[in-house]
Amino acid sequence: MEKLRVSIITVSYNSSATIADTIRSVESQTYPNIEHIIIDGASTDGTVDIIKHYGIKISKFISEPDHGIYDAMNKGLKLSSGDIIGILNSDDLYIDNSVIEKVVEQFEKTMCDALYGDLYYVQKENTDVIVRKWHSKQFVPGSFRKGWHPPHPTFFVKNDVYSKYGYFDLQFKLAADFELMLRFLENHKIKQSYLPRPLIKMRLGGATNKNLQNIIRQNIECYDAFKKNSIQVSYFYPVIRLFPKVLQYIKR
Length: 252
What we know:
Elements: E1 6-12, H1 19-27, E2 34-40, H2 47-53, E3 60-63, H3 69-79, E4 84-87, E5 92-94, H4 99-110, E6 114-122, E7 130-134, E8 156-158, H5 159-165, H6 176-187, E9 192-203, H7 212-228, H8 237-240, H9 242-250
């Protein structure tokens, strides 16, 4: 029986300091049937040269201007030929070389449409130093309204789910990943599975959390995502969603 094909999408822009680590993280996976797609936003810092250095190890590569990270992700989704799609950002890493193997095993065992796990935030300069742990849990309907959502970098989805329910909504500049997970899990109620193990190391310092203004904007966008999906939520939601994040520091 042919193994399920997994497409990994990496989007990059001026990521020369970290992109090689990300590529090697995919390359070192023990699972044999992986398609690695890199969508670059016309980097000017040497990122493109680093990507080209890895040659045939990259299945598909585009470098051209885009309209932001979610536009780039949508380009990658449209190019993906895998049965399962994961997104690995250009400054993130898999926690070990068996992640994709374990993910596929869980898909086959549970027959789910989407899967997610845990995420570790690590120091930008030293990815062996864990700063914060995001332990997720099994989704139940209504979880999003209580401030919970899966860590998007750990979110693997079947290709046909994207085809059926759509890609990232570019109306959302900082929370399109949140809106997509909300749409899939709460609105369309796809079958999901929680894999209780760390899957991703995520460097601190992403676009969403780089300043207070972006954090506020993201919270507003998350609130708007509920309205877009016709899901009622408390006006206090932006405050409610802070509690799970505080617990990440307490339980590290």
